[in-house]
Amino acid sequence: MVTSRDxxxxxxxxxxxxxxxxxxxxxxxxxxxxxxxDAARLLGYVPSEAGRALSSGRTRRIGLLLTxxxxxxxxxxxxPVHRELEKLGYQLMLHTESADNETIAERLVANGLDGVIxxxxxxxxxxxxxxxxxxxxxxxxxxxxxxxxxxxAIVDPVPGYAEAVSxxxxxxxxxxxxxxxxxxxxxxxxxxxxxxxxxxxHGISLAERDVRxxxxxxxxxxxxxxxxxxxxxxxxxxxxxxDVVAYGALNAAHRAGMSVPxxxxxxxxxxxxxxxWPIIDLATIGxxxxxxxxxxxxxxxxxxxxxxxxxxxxxxxxxxxPRRTLAQAKQG
Length: 332
Hints:
Elements: H1 4-11, H2 15-22, H3 30-43, H4 49-56, E1 61-66, H5 78-87, E2 91-96, H6 103-110, E3 115-118, H7 127-134, E4 138-141, E5 152-156, H8 158-170, E6 176-180, H9 186-201, E7 211-213, H10 218-229, E8 237-240, H11 243-255, E9 265-270, E10 283-286, H12 289-305, E11 313-317, E12 319-321
Parallel strand pairs: 1-2, 1-3, 3-4, 4-5, 5-11, 6-7, 6-8, 8-9, 9-10
Antiparallel strand pairs: 10-12
Helix pairs in contact: 1-2, 1-3, 5-12, 6-7, 8-9, 10-11
């Protein structure tokens, strides 16, 4: 195995100089850096990540924590987070857990990470508290916790719902239902609040009998939507907590022999790439998912490099995209 000492001998420098040169240390001249890099390339030397961590006190690894692994939304953020972190000189480590509990923080700390992006935090999660106590930098992505204020990349659902409800009213919908996300997530709470406010502004109330709350999954969305559509006086339109739930609602309507949008209109949230597929063509409220993922990566690196920086919340505005699943209200 080629070592840094072999590189040092070929380059005619000391072993510590090799380490400094490969770290782009300002104390090493550019000519020496070039000589060391040429020697390393010639010998096929690859610096040890463990050695780098020991010398710098950092692993340059950042974790992305997911507990809601069935939610298709998160598969669309891994690539942009990875690309942004790689550009900033960090490596993405995906961590999946079956539940958000007290042991998560200990496992994250034990993995020797420089920081963590928390993507599926529950409101009551104590993980942010434990991470703060242990001094491990973290940021919230999409969802936030209630016990610790921290850097966050999040969506503002208000403008998107305002646009959507205005269009819904124009199309004659007055009896509206909703399949919302779990109440212990900040995303479900903020979206419900924005939806109710937009409806109220047009004199429409969202009755509890026309509301269901469920996990952010297609299966749960289908079951909840089926209950609403089975009512003798079913809503003419369903707002869904996210696109995945809306996919389930589409299935429920199909199984009930109902036509979308002739019998019932359906609106999602997130505007995932699949939502615009011709076979789905889902009306939905969206935002810059990739931009938000890049922002989370940028925020965690900023927090690692400056632990005392002011807490920053980067909010991404939502917009409404009408598609095939929204049409004129069915006249009873």
